[in-house]
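Our collaborator T.R. sent over the components below with a one-line note: 'Predict the complex.' Nothing else. No constraints on interfaces, no templates requested, no preferences about which chain binds where. So this is a plain run: every listed entity goes in together, and whatever single assembly comes back becomes the starting point for the next discussion.
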Amino acid sequence: MLTAEIIAIGSELLTPEKTDTNSLWLTGRLNEIGVEVKLKTIVGDDAARLEEAIADAVKRSDVIITTGGLGPTEDDITRRCSANAIGRELVYHEELEAHLRERFRLWGREMPEINKRQAYVIDGAEILPNPNGSAVGMLAKIDEKFLAVLPGPPRENQPMFDNYVFAKLKESAGNVIVKRRVLRVTGYGESAVDELIAPIYTSYQNLDTSILFTKSEIEVHLAARADSDGKASVVVEEVTKKILDVLGDAVFSTDNETMEQVLGKILTKRGLTISTAESCTGGLISRRLTEVPGSSKYFLEGVVSYSNEAKIRLLNIPSKTIEMHGAVSAETAEAMAKGMREVSGSDVALSVTGIAGPDGGTPEKPVGTVFIGYSDTHGEMSRKFLFPGDRYLIRWRSSQAALDYVRRRLLAAAKNA
Amino acid sequence: MLTAEIIAIGSELLTPEKTDTNSLWLTGRLNEIGVEVKLKTIVGDDAARLEEAIADAVKRSDVIITTGGLGPTEDDITRRCSANAIGRELVYHEELEAHLRERFRLWGREMPEINKRQAYVIDGAEILPNPNGSAVGMLAKIDEKFLAVLPGPPRENQPMFDNYVFAKLKESAGNVIVKRRVLRVTGYGESAVDELIAPIYTSYQNLDTSILFTKSEIEVHLAARADSDGKASVVVEEVTKKILDVLGDAVFSTDNETMEQVLGKILTKRGLTISTAESCTGGLISRRLTEVPGSSKYFLEGVVSYSNEAKIRLLNIPSKTIEMHGAVSAETAEAMAKGMREVSGSDVALSVTGIAGPDGGTPEKPVGTVFIGYSDTHGEMSRKFLFPGDRYLIRWRSSQAALDYVRRRLLAAAKNA
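Returned assembly:
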């Protein structure tokens, strides 16, 4: 398997505002042909560091791609540094200067003298034409290794890579095919997921697995390598099936979908409508549900009832329920879901009431205490959670747990039917 | 001037989908104290490359910050590699393991054995507490150089950096003072803002200005350098005042606050309450308003009325208003705001009705058509917008325009009072 490094060049990429994004596209193209990106470097207009970065990359990896730093101004140093890094000279190409002069003439301008720099190319490197800009690219071979020197703007480097670099790398990479899949898991911690599925993924040789924790879910990234599409797919399918056997319904998507997309699909498939009654999540759940295009087919309405008075008026909650059990209680959560379902006429309703903080916690009900309520034609149920984190995370985790609660109820109902 | 390198660790950062963004925030903080970021490296779960990257960085730069790779799973290798890179041992800390066990106990879970790894720390390094996660950070000094090893999640690494690393680097960086300010502007395009304020910022020598366009606002980043806090502050204040003279109320914050924070402050100051009636934004506006801690003091309630039936029932809109003008109209928007204010008893109410797409557009009302309604004791008003972008952007821009509409109404009322 060939390994690659990408080096992005430009001082603007070292500011608080900008980051390198060229490498994402390049990584996608490299991964397609089984070339793995092992390291990315972002370096400014600093000749010593750039030269060292390129030289180190050539030592470690099979494919090195640089982007940027090929313009005509003083601080564009990639040409010189890449030649130095591999111990070669820059060679002047008269036909490149003529071509540049012609380009400028077509734009109705005189070529500034500094643009002459763009007529120098690493000795022995292939010149990569650039129809979309003045800087040509270069492709140098160092023994079996490749150094591709590309301009920074995506509309210049992407066609250049596809037209002049991709096929050569593909040939050199052999016949490797990589199939990827992302499983999304909720309701487990990162280490619990890893303990449960490590025996599965470690038993495969040509499979890369990484486990990623985001604010309310675990992503399991699978990448299977094989010499054919069919073989790689078989591995991904097989591993997915084994993980599903172990984690069950906790895997809410095997296709990198969000929780709201998955729930929307289940509702659509079963022809059900939903409504939401939110307190501490403040509209986050309805916002997530309605983010999905076409959600108006199943999402009827939502209420954000912050005050007790609003809960009573909008959701017909008996005031004694709140008096007896408190606004943050299983009873109130269930009454909210019931009331919401009744006033909206939806098939199912969910509710959330809790304490997102930073204030409002008590010893009995600390910040993070959240009750999720659910209602359908069979009645109401609820579940208590205690979420760690700050206000933002507690709200997000509440929304995730609520959507997941409905998802699991509907899956259970389908199994029992 | 001290130089810094940032090393982001994690195989997910070498995929086509994800890139390192932690370094942007860190760069901002480092720049504030005159520390310049010279190189960034992104490395996966590859011990040899990571160790080399850290070792090289320590040779070249004064401050090295790593982010990520401190979790408990197999592929979290930062602890071991950073110790190796600087030729030190990892030392087991019994009290860290006890603390971890206690954290898990509080969550009602047993600590998985692999979490024990998180009790190992580089010999001689300061332990940086992490109230927001299980991985502690480390700060090692190598002669006059700093190696800070931070966890990956921003919610963990940012407070850790600010609480335990920033002051030490500031002291070491000497007396360069950089004062930054972020002005947030809405209602203008990027180039319009630049044309209006370029004559101001170009007249200062030691001022860096960058103008950044985000999904619904323009950020003007000012950074003034001087040898004293006072001098740098004077420049920032002066430039801010001049920009305010030119852009007026379009500048909604001179302190990098969100629109919902700014509106919350105005409501709090004036002792007013608010309620929201949303259609196409689906709860996004109430979600944003209630994201602010303490918002329960002014936010009374919200309704997400997707269907016409819900608009009529929940907001007492005359059904003939919708029949005559359509659900997406100035009349319906104003009726929604009026109804919301009346049923909730809030001082002001806002409403949004529009077409977020991808479906539902017509020649007269294409996707992106949005009406914002407003109601207070003086009556109702509304404004029509046509937002470009996809569903996500149209919804976001609608929420921003709605909050801004209320902000401007309240500012105008205060001026007229």
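Summary for T.R.: Residues 259-416 of chain B form a domain with the Maf protein fold (CATH 3.90.950.20).
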